[in-house]
Amino acid sequence: MTQHKVIYDTDPGVDDAMALVFQALHPDIELLGITSVYGNATIDTTTSNALYLRSRFCPGVPVARGAAAPLHRAPPAPLGWIHGDNGLGNIELGEPGDTSLDARPAHQFIVDTIRAQPGEVTLIAVGPLTNLALALEADPEIATLVKQVVIMGGAFGTAGVLGNVSPAAEANIMCDPDAADIVLGAAWPVTMVGLDVTQETIMPNEWLKDFGGHGDAGRFVWDVSRHYARFHKDSAGLEGIYVHDSSAVAYVLAPHLYTVRKGPVRVVTSGIATGETIQKPVTMKAPAPDWDDRPAQAVCVGVDAAGMLDLYKNTFFKAL
């Protein structure tokens, strides 16, 4: 029986694609829709990639085109050296069999889907949070109707890491810090799965190699991760890849694998620390007016990395 009805808000992206296949294969996830957003590439590229992935791995799932730029800033440059010029590791992409888009913009698709199934929809957001902020602006009441919001984003220093695009900021939050501060201040239950746990979870190349012989989905994971792995080797000396976006999916499926800390979160929106995420833990009793009137959100500060990797691999191998 399906336990999680998911809207996947994404900027595919190698790790976004790996996380989408994870969801498509897992029996406890029902994908209600895929909403694209700029980020790892332009909105044209990320939407095209969403259509390709939908056709290959989850036919029939609606795709809605989302925001092309942050709320108040210029869009970031595409990250070709990380995700490939086509956003999917420069693997050869055929034309998707289904190029149909939902007629609604992504934020309206999110609003309408949550309203149609109150209390049932999980939002998994693994790119800039612009679509979610626009959805809240269009209909603030969705915050009381969504089941949960799980975000791959942020960094809080618990594992010694405060950012990956600046000394203070993680990439998804940095892309639209204004939207992130809005989303984290809304009265819906948010869990942030950030660098504190995603960089503690590594898929080694030898581990990934096992996927190559396990069906179309497994071959895709191996192929799409090769360019991404070279980036990790060059930038961090890893013989593998950090597990960013799939960690957000794993949290939805197996929250017991993660340790969370509760407290309101603010995002710095100007200055050299733009994009920094700062939580006031609920255990801190000193007054902090810029935090104290905001809802306590959950931040992942620990992970059973081996358990997460087992969950991912078993999802693929059991699906054969």
Question: Summed up, what is this model?
Answer:
Helix content is 38%, strand content 18%. With 320 residues, the protein is of the alpha/beta class.
Which key features would you list for this structure?
single chain; 320 residues; alpha/beta; Inosine-uridine Nucleoside N-ribohydrolase, Chain A; eight-stranded mixed beta sheet; two-stranded antiparallel sheet; 13 helices
Textual characterization of the structure:
- This protein is α/β, with parallel strands linked by helices.
- The protein has one domain (4-318): Ribonucleoside hydrolase-like (Inosine-uridine Nucleoside N-ribohydrolase, Chain A), CATH 3.90.245.
- 38% of the residues lie in helices and 18% in strands.
- The protein has helices at residues 14-25, 43-57, 80-83, 106-116, 130-138, 171-175, 177-185, 195-198, 205-209, 215-236, 245-253, 289-292, 305-318; strands at 4-10, 29-36, 63-64, 121-125, 148-152, 190-193, 202-204, 240-242, 258-263, 265-267, 277-279, 297-303.
- The strands form 3 sheets. The chain has an 8-stranded mixed β-sheet with strand order 3-2-1-4-5-6-12-9, with helices on both faces. The protein has a two-stranded antiparallel ribbon with strand order 7-8.
- Strand 4 (121-125), helix 5 and strand 5 (148-152) form a beta-alpha-beta unit.
- It is globular, with a radius of gyration of 18 Å.
- The model has no long low-confidence stretch (mean pLDDT 96).
